Amino acid sequence: MIIFSGGTGTPKLLDGLKEILPHEELTVVVNTAEDLWVSGNLISPDLDTILYLFSGQIDRKKWWGIEGDTFLTHEYMQALGVEESMKLGDRDRATHIIRSDLLRDGATLSEATEKLASLFKIRAKILPMSDDPISTYVETPEGPMHFQDFWVGYHGEPEVEGVDILGVSEASIAEKVFNALENDDRVLIGPSNPITSIGPIISLPGMKDLLKEKKVVAVSPIIGNAPVSGPAGKLMQACGLEVSSMGVAEYYQEFLDVFVFDERDRADEFAFERLGCQACRADTLMTSTAKSIELAEFVTGLFDTIV
Questions:
Q1: What mean pLDDT do residues 99-112 have?
Q2: Which residues, 6+ apart, have CB-to-CB distance to 70 below 8 Å?
Q3: Cα-based distances in Å from 4 to 131, 156, 186, 252, 274
Q4: Using the 8-state DSSP alphabet, how is residue 45 labeled?
Q5: What number is the average pLDDT over the span 173-180?
């Protein structure tokens, strides 16, 4: 199974999937449009979250970073008057140093990620969506800002006038991702921000055409008219989408087969038929590993219903 992932929503679903499926059968295609260089090292937040999840290191309170990490380097830099745009943990920083050294030595991001997964003894395939540089910028009244500056630096508070995924139209699908899609017809789009977490992946040239040939199940990150977490609502609105499960389904409608939305959502499941997809309800609030397993079992069973 191939899972498209970004942010913190899909990792929670992966927490359940890794309990019910052999890790070797899981291929996670990860958003890299939120990557940025900090203090001389490439930070790849969405890749790191998946690496830490599968290696048993993830901080489950935040769903990013390493549990119990310290911040001595960051704090000492602050004491010296040097501010970093992100607060990086010491062990987390080691991951960035290893990745960046590999890149400086000529490795691709895919190769560097494969090396890190090996060091962490991960059996699942964790693949960056592309080996080309891509960056998501948020248009605000204060001017364009990198997504990490918007979300981390400004806590998502500025008004959003638009979203630009710079470099995506010139980028290529990573070779290992393309090969994975050639060999597996099941694609699960997790409950991540559709604009900035999944959007860059499906915006890669040729990706939507590939997905049209696959069995695609997507899980909504929206309940009612609000995202479960993060700035998805504000970003969807700026992109002209209704902030609702229907808005998410419309964003994916070109290739969507089955759409899963929350049982608390008042949307009419029959309304999704006009988009040409099936729709069904489930408990999508993953407040524990048990809840994640329950949802994982439900969504994996949906692939058998697709003709």
A1: 98
A2: 89, 90, 91
A3: 16, 23, 11, 13, 24
A4: H
A5: 97
